[in-house]
Amino acid sequence: MIPAAMKRQLARWRLKDPAFAYLLDTDDSEVVSVDCETTSLNVKEAELLSIGAVKIRGQRILSSESFYLLVKPERRPEAGSVKIHGLRPRDVSDGLSPREAVSQLLAFIGGRPLVGYYLEYDVAVLNKYVRDITGIGLPNRQIEVSGRFYDYKIRQQPDSHIDLRLATLVDELGVPALPRHDALNDAITAGMMYLALKKRGFG
């Protein structure tokens, strides 16, 4: 296994533009909860439609320091996709280009750890653009709330089946149920679940 310090040094060498070196300056004073709405659940096909993110400091979600952007995809969102997130072609027609939107997201998150619900998918989609812009994938530490919830439940009920659906996590952790499939709402929901698990010793 390559040590973390060596991985970061390799990432610095691979950066296309030293202006993005701030991504490698670890900042654990805050975390950022991130969510993306996309045209597909297939990472290879998926294009960004919106990005939501919010900073978390200590036990507080900093709603005044939130991030939300609409993104204009290359292809029109299909009807099945629109039914899920409600973003119609005309809603995203004036959105930012993916490159500009992701560049703004990078400036927002900096070197902070990322939090999310099934974050691996969001990071995989973002990295399609991040690698083109910076030469590297997102180097930020990732905190998966469904994994933390699994650890929390399995300690209570060893060998049991753990339901990891979002509605179950929201209910079990007692966090407010915000309207779903809105990138900022989903980022805030993941942030609330993260804090609820942190209070239970799984942060």
Features:
5 strands; 17% strand; 8 helices; 5-stranded mixed β-sheet; single chain; Nucleotidyltransferase, domain 5; 203 residues
Task: Explain what you see.
One of its GO terms (molecular function) is exonuclease activity. Keywords: Exonuclease, Hydrolase, Nuclease. This is 3'-5' exonuclease. Pfam families: RNase_T (PF00929). The chain has 203 residues and is an alpha/beta fold. It is built from 8 helices and 5 strands, in the order H-E-E-E-H-H-H-E-H-E-H-H-H. The longest helix is centred in the last third of the chain and has 17 residues. 33% of the residues are buried.
Structural class: alpha/beta
**Biggest sheet statistics:** 5 strands, mixed
Mean pLDDT: 90
CATH architecture: 2-Layer Sandwich
Give the strand content: 15-25%
Label the overall shape.
globular
Strand arrangement, major sheet: 3-2-1-4-5
What top-tier CATH class fits best? Alpha Beta
What is the CATH T-level topology?
Answer: Nucleotidyltransferase, domain 5
Q: At the fourth CATH level, what is the homologous superfamily?
A: Ribonuclease H-like superfamily/Ribonuclease H
The unreliable regions are: none
Rg measurement, Å: 17 Å
Distinct helical segment count: 8
For the record, the count of structural domains works out to 1
Question: Alpha-carbon distance between the termini?
Answer: 24 Å
**N-to-C SSE series?**
HEEEHHHEHEHHH
Helical residues, percent: 40-55%
Protein name: 3'-5' exonuclease
GO molecular function, one term: exonuclease activity
Keywords: Exonuclease, Hydrolase, Nuclease
Pfam families: RNase_T
